Every structure is written in structure tokens, then in C-alpha cells.
Predict the 3D structure of the following.
Amino acid sequence: MSGVQLMEEWQKIGGMLSHIAAPVPEINAAELLPRNLRRTMGAMALHATIASREAAADAGLDARLLSSGRVGVVIGSTTGSPEAYEKFYRTFLREESVAEIKSGFFFKVMSHSCAANVCLALGITGEQWAPASACTSSAQAIGLGYLLIKAGRQDAVLCGGADEVHHTVTMVFDVLKAASRKNEPPRRTPAPFDRDRDGVVCGGGSGILVLESLDSALARGAEIYAELLGFGHVNDPVHIANPQEAAMSASMKAALADARLGPGDIDYVNAHATGTLQGDLTEARAICSALGPDVPVSSSKGHIGHTLGAAGSLESILSLEMIRRQELIPTLNLSNPDPECSCIKLVMEKRAQRVDTVMKNNFALGGVNTALIFQRWQK
Amino acid sequence: MNQDDSIHRQVVEVIAQEFELDPEKLTPEATLYDDLGLDSLDAVDLVVALEKSFGVKLANEEAIKAVRTMGDLFALIGSLKPSE
């Protein structure tokens, strides 16, 4: 099932050719949060707060623990709320006046809007961090949470990211000729690794995980979905936009080294693969170079689109669910694998198999390359 | 209905809508901070909402800072919209 739909309003924007996205369905925020919390939240902070509450409840982190100072928050996004930004400039530029600008504006658009609003809503007194690196924001957030816990600075960290569907976000990819233009029917695109793929479809939402030290989780009797074993994080200084096989491959190898695993230990790769011609091809080659040709690979972006700052955490959650089900989910809309990507083994149908150790790749414009390794927890 | 009643009603409507408050609680004696739970950020939005609704400019910052109750607010707006 695809979350992609036609965005009719976008058809009126001059020169914009991509009119599709995977937005979060409408929610009644007033039923979920009091006004004094909502007034400083754009859609991304709202979604991050709801996801954080769900994650904390699922992990059994109660109000006392959340305010103990031992629990932190690392939640990233590409920018602050683009919808709030647009509203500000439309209001400001009308008469070049701030007379109608409300107090919540800055708190919706600041780069740490999601993290700050989550901390306020959940009563966090530990560390607050907000990595902003576009499509790797939440992969970096998970990596940073992992480092904070390893360093003994926090016992647990709510980690992840959020972003929202907005025409100014899809425009970024449209300008770079990297947004899908297959507007009809919307649900047939994006098509990662398919020979007929034509680009990214942006999605929105938030994914939040609770990372916790093993000692703390065991002492609390918390349910452990998986262990985070490795974090590879490599910069590519060659080009600000073009993906580089060497840097992608190096991030995967760094994650393996951090996890003290070999290429043959990975049961499945959840690829970054967004559906762009060059990105998918380069990643396929990098996976083959780092892990060999036999590891099963799929991308979750056919289902949920490219959720940008939320991609790393949402796709990590989907990967953990594959571990829980012991089942691999194929790439939606992948019908005819690109022969150029044939150096990897693409998952073509839903199938039961052993899924104990998973690699989650994410790469961002600007040279950021990340890989996370999760392993099923066994006592 | 005289001009004062009309201003009171409009102020109550604006405040009730802006801050999601029960109009019944917006009595002249109600204090904005303690009774109604508003804070410094709300004070900024209060001015924006009233200026928009009444088409006036609340430029006297000292007079705005002196507002403690709904009654003070009725008086402030009333002073800007003299009865005809």
C-alpha cells in the first residue's frame, strides 16, 4: 500500500512538474495536545511530539524517568517548518510589516523546533540535540544517541527525526531534476531500483526510537526490539550533490567495523534508494562493494516516499518490524529491476526468512553518508 | 446594546477564540495571567489579535503592560474606540 497522492494545488505552481507527495493524514491536534504546547509547533514538531509520546509509552519511560536528567532527546529535521516559514514571509512581505507576526513563529521555524517542542511536551531535563542534515538528520540522530549512551552521558535517548510535506520541499528536488514527474497514477511512483524510475517523491511524518543502555533496559525489564551494534558516518568531499560510491561504501564498512561484524553477517539491507537514477545505481554498486552480491536489499520509499529528516528513523522502525516478523518486505513499485543495479540481490516478493542483522543506509545531499546496524536481541 | 457592550462582546470573542477559552470565564474581574493562564508569549498574540479585530494600533506599550484583568482590557480598547 502506498501513501503517495496527487497534490492538486501544486499544479498551479509555475514550472513545477512534480505534483505528488506522501503527506501525513489530517489529525485533530487539539484533541491530543493543549494549546500552550501547540502554539509553537508546526506540523513536523507536532508529529515528532506524538511519535515521541508513543515511543516513550511503548518503552515504559514514565514521567519520572523522562524528567530524571538521565533521558535525552536527539531529533533532527531538514529545517524548521516550511509551512510556517512560508506563512511568515507571505505576511511580512505583504506590507513589509511584522505587525501580524505571532509569537509562535520562531519556535516553529528554528532548526531545533522538533527537539525543543518534544522536550517541553515530555518534561525532558536531559540533553537536547537536533542534527540538521536533510536526508540523514534522523540517521545522525540515532548515531548521536548511540554515542551519548556509549559515553555514559545518558541512560536513554529518544532519537529520530521529522519533516513535513510542503511544495517548497519538493521544489528542491524539482529544481535539481530529481523529483518524480509520474503524477498519474500517483501510487505507482517512486520506484526505487526499477529501470523506469524517475525520481524522488517527498513524504512527511516522524519516527522516534528509544535507545537505552543495555543495563538500564534490563534493569527496568523493558522490551528490547533490537541492539544497535554499529554506526558508520563518512563525509564525501568530492561533490555537494552527486552521490559517490566510495563514500557510501566506506560508511557501510565503517558500520561493520564498529559492530565488529563481517560483510557476510548482514541478513538484509534497507537501502536509502529514493528512486533517482544516479542515487539508486550508485548505492547498488556501493552495497555490492561493501557487502558482496548476495545480501537481500529493498527500499521502503516506494511505500512512504522520501521522508527526508524522518527517513532514517522511520525506515529503521520498518527494519525492526522485519526483524520482529522474520520477514522481508520488497520495494513497492519495483517491477522491472534496472539491469544496471543487477550487482545486488533485490527482494522481489514478501518472504519469510531469518532476519537477525540489518543494515540501514541513509545518504544526504551535502556529502553525508551513514549506515546503522541493528541486530535482533537475544538474551 | 450600547457601544461598551459591543466592545466587551467583541473583546471576549477575540480572546476566547485566540486562546481557546470559555467565554463565560472572561469576566471583567478575571486576571489574564493567574485566572486565564496566559503568559508572555500570549501577551504578544493578544495585541496582534486585538489590533486585527478592531483595526487599531496598540502603540502605547506602557498602557498594554498595565493591563491585568479583562476589565482593564475592555477599558483600554474602549479608550481607543470612543463611543459615537
Chain A touches chain B through eleven residues (CB under 8 Å). The radius of gyration of chain A is 20 Å.
